Amino acid sequence: MTYPWRAYIEAFLNYDKAAKDTHLQQRMWHEDTAVHHDFLDSNQNLGLAWHRSRTKLSREFEMMGPLHLDICNTDRLLLNNCTLRVKLTRSRDAFALMSTKGTEKIKLLDVKLYVRRVNISPSVLLAHAQALEKSPAKYPVNRVDIKTVTIAQGMHSKTIDNLFMNQLPQRVIIGFVDNRAYNGDYGRNPYNFQHFHLNYLQLHVDGQAVPSHPLTLDFSKDLYMEYYNTLFSGTGIHWKDEGNGISWSDYPKGNTLFVFDLSPDLSASEPHWNLQRQGTMRLDLRFAEPLAQPMKLRRVRRVSESY
After folding, report:
1. Which phi and psi angles does 265 have, rounded to 5°?
2. What stretches of the chain adopt beta strand conformation (E)?
3. What's the pLDDT at 252?
4. In whole angstroms, what is the distance from residue 130 CA to residue 238 CA?
């Protein structure tokens, strides 16, 4: 079950506050109040209050948004007579809902999939047919993988030797989620990315440290600027007149993600491709306090392939 986190992270990091306050609300997007992600009191968690106002007393509500799939993010059109099957599997109600009773459920009344069709010039179709007689069609696709590692209760440090193997990603996003929220709990928010008193995080790509010097942090003293900066340096908006709506003060309060652009020219957000690289990746973690609860490490990678 990885799709919900992909959809959340892509919206969370790729849109600024203006977009989140307008057209993203078609997707039922409304951010939780910082540090109150798990609060069921509407007076404290404004995000939960907004969702409750849309759904209370079993009201019908509408949602509309894109599918967060690799094939849907390519700028190439699919050829005629190309079969494409889409299978959607719902998450558990305990994962998708928050409540004190723990008995609420989601009932789908109607689902529509909108697919755009384009009328191509007959001369172009003929040229395509002639080209397909010589070689198959290839589609460049940026593939996104999400994997999970469990870190046990009481741990002070953790080394993950094979974070990713073989093909190295262009970008890596790392976040930590409470194990109970990950499995589905009516009282916990699965998108509450906590820091768990992390004080050291270091990536090693083929033995080379990324970044080149270890970055230490101390959330108890508000010393985390370099990792907050990865939300911008790792997403292609570094020093630009753009943003993502995540303030420095809100970063450690349920919005703690670490983003690393591993492309040679820091172009993971650009449309052009880099050469594929093979290798291994290791992640070193240290915590100022032993983990009070087991947690899940979510790791997202973006790689370029041709199909």
Report:
1. -115, 20
2. 140-151, 157-167, 171-178, 198-205, 208-216, 257-261, 278-287, 295-306
3. 95
4. 45
Contact 119, 285 (CB under 8 A): no
pLDDT bin (cut points 50, 70, 90) of residue 12 is: very high
pLDDT, position 76 = 86
Q: What is the pLDDT of residues 226-262, one digit of tens each?
A: 999 999 998 988 888 888 999 999 999 999 999 998 8
pLDDT digits (tens, 9 = 90+) for 62-78: 999 999 998 888 888 88
Task: Give whole-number Cα distances, 303 to 64, 206, 275, in Å.
Answer: 28, 17, 10
* Residue 24 C-alpha from the chain's centroid: 15
CA distances 118 to 21, 136, 138, 143, Å, are 31, 21, 19, 25
- Strands of 140-151's sheet, edge to edge? 140-151, 295-306, 171-178, 257-261
251 contact partners, CB below 8 Å, separation of at least 6: 224, 228, 231
Q: Is 302 helix (H, G, I), strand (E, B) or coil?
A: strand
| Angle (nearest 5°) at CA 257 between 165 and 272 | 60
What percent of the chain is modeled with pLDDT above 90?
A: 53
Q: What is the pLDDT of residue 303?
A: 63
Written as one letter, the residue type at 110 is: D
* pLDDT of amino acid 266: 76
Place of tokens 């409304």: 30
Selection from 167, 137, 146, 165 nearest residue 274 by Cα: 167
Asked if 174 and 257 count as a contact pair (C-beta separation under 8 A), the reply is: yes
